[in-house]
Amino acid sequence: MACTPVQLGHSLAGFHYTLAADILRDVETPLREPTFLILTALAGEPLHGYGLITEVSRLSDGRVTLRPGTLYGALDRLVDAGLVEVDHEEVVDSRLRRYYRLSEQGGQTLVEETERMRRNVEAATERLRKIPRLNEGWA
User: Fold this and answer.
1) CA-CA to 42 of 20 to 30 Å: which in 3, 54, 81, 102?
2) Over the stretch 5-63, which tens digit does the pLDDT of each residue have?
3) What sign results for the dihedral spanned by CA atoms 91, 81, 43, 38?
4) Which fold has domain 6-135?
């Protein structure tokens, strides 16, 4: 089953990802955007589920919204793949809060994917500069 994000409304740029399988078929690169954003969010500090949902939304300027079930399915797969680790757990208001962190392998995967994306952006930017009608928007 291919990842098909459901577009919200007619003109909104945001997407909801409803299945963990939609996020994860990508333990290898290129990573799908939600997985890339989860790993990026965890590169800063360990986060719990709600913190990840909030940070992914912030990193994507609200374009990517992860539902809790989708996030936890993705986290289970990322943990199984060795890209993410459980950092610690704590009880807050009688509820267990599990914090996740980027593993060394996850960090290396994020570095490699970031470099791959950087090269793609450089190639696209170089070509776009050659198109006069688009050149005005490029420094």
Assistant:
1) 3
2) 433 333 234 455 444 444 445 455 689 999 999 999 999 999 999 999 999 999 999 99
3) negative
4) Arc Repressor Mutant, subunit A (1.10.10)
Cα separation, 109 vs 5, in Å, equals 23
Residues 30 and 32: their CA atoms lie apart, in Å, by: 7
**Residue 106, Cα to own-chain centre: how many angstroms?**
12
In sequence order, the 6+-apart residues with CB closer than 8 A to the CB of 22 are 3, 4, 5, 32, 34, 70
Q: Give the pair of three-digit tokens for residue 100.
A: 């996740």
Tokens of 129: 């500069």
Please name the residues in contact with 103: beta carbons below 8 A apart, sequence gap of 6 or more: 82, 83, 84, 85
Name the residue ranges covered by the structural domains of the chain. 6-135
Residue 23 has which token pair?
Answer: 């996020």
